[in-house]
Amino acid sequence: MTPATMTPATIDAACTDHALAFDLLAADPQFHRIEDHRRDAMIASALASGVASADDVRRRHGNDPDAIAAALGIPVEVSATPADYGSTLVFAEYLSRPPRIVLFPDAIGRVDACLADAAMRAHWRIASARSVYVAHELFHHLDADAIAHLPAHRVTLFALGRWRWTAGVAALSEIAAGAFAQRLLGLPAHPRALDLLAAARPVTPSREHLPRAAVGAPSAEAVG
User: Fold this and answer.
1) Residue 131 lies inside a defined structural domain of this protein
2) Gap between the Cα atoms of 23 and 204, Å rounded
3) In total, how many domains does the chain have?
4) Is 211 inside any structural domain?
5) What DSSP assignment string belongs to 2-34?
6) pTM strictly above 0.85
7) Which domain covers residue 193, as residue numbers?
8) What is the pLDDT of residues 133-153, one digit of tens each?
9) Residue 109: what pLDDT?
10) Nearest to 65 by CA among 79, 51, 54
11) Is residue 205 part of a domain?
12) Which of 33, 63, 79, 136 would be 155's cystine partner, CB 3.0–4.6 Å?
């Protein structure tokens, strides 16, 4: 299935939030270090973190990403520099010093071109993806990648006796940020689907991407 043939119905059938989150996790440099039995629990935790954060923010500030950014004193800037780095397409970024959100209109324009189709626009219930990416970056400001640094979500890089050197999984923050934007804006699916449409990538998951039942919580690892 290619993006050109996708419809709202095929998106609903093929792109569960878990499958879209798995796509993000699979692209992380640490993915091969994550045991199979831990992956589903890590994804579920990241998705839940994004939802909980969105619910909290919505109670305090409403659901307009620009209004939330203004309330938090976070400027939203537009970059004149394209953010297309070959196989990597950057839609927005959060910079912490000083805190600000930077949008890349060329990349967001690719998503908006996909939303030009009336059926696709009606399905996503947005005319432009700008608000999606502002919301995504707001999560990074609010949570500062905390989800990626939880002990239970770290992977072992090297072990020597009882000492273990570990690293976080950056993709978990991206999964959570997408879930935050989805919840805040009431989107029908994790916005990773929009990223893939803009990048002209297929979004049909394989069977291994689908969640397994009764996955136990991952155990924490000691840091040497």
Assistant:
1) yes
2) 10
3) 1
4) no
5) -GGG--HHHHHHH--HHHHHHHHHHTSTTGGGS
6) no
7) 3-200
8) 999 999 999 986 666 556 567
9) 92
10) 54
11) no
12) 33
Question: In this predicted structure, what is the pLDDT of residue 217?
Answer: 28
Q: Which tokens go with 184?
A: 């805040």
Report the run of H or E that residue 131 belongs to, with start and end. Answer: helix 130-143
Is residue 19 within 8 A of residue 142, CB to CB? The reply is no
CA distances to 19, 89, 139, 164, 178 from 14, in Å: 8, 23, 26, 39, 18
Residue 157 counted as domain residue: yes
Q: How many residues does the chain have?
A: 224
Mean residue pLDDT of the chain comes to 79
Dmax over CA atoms of the chain, in Å, equals: 60
Q: How many of the other CB atoms lie within 10 Å of CB of 153?
A: 22
Long-range CB contacts (< 8 A, 24+ apart) of 11-14?
A: 11/123, 11/188, 11/189, 11/193, 11/203, 12/188, 12/189, 14/203, 14/204, 14/205
Supply the pLDDT for residue 33. Answer: 84
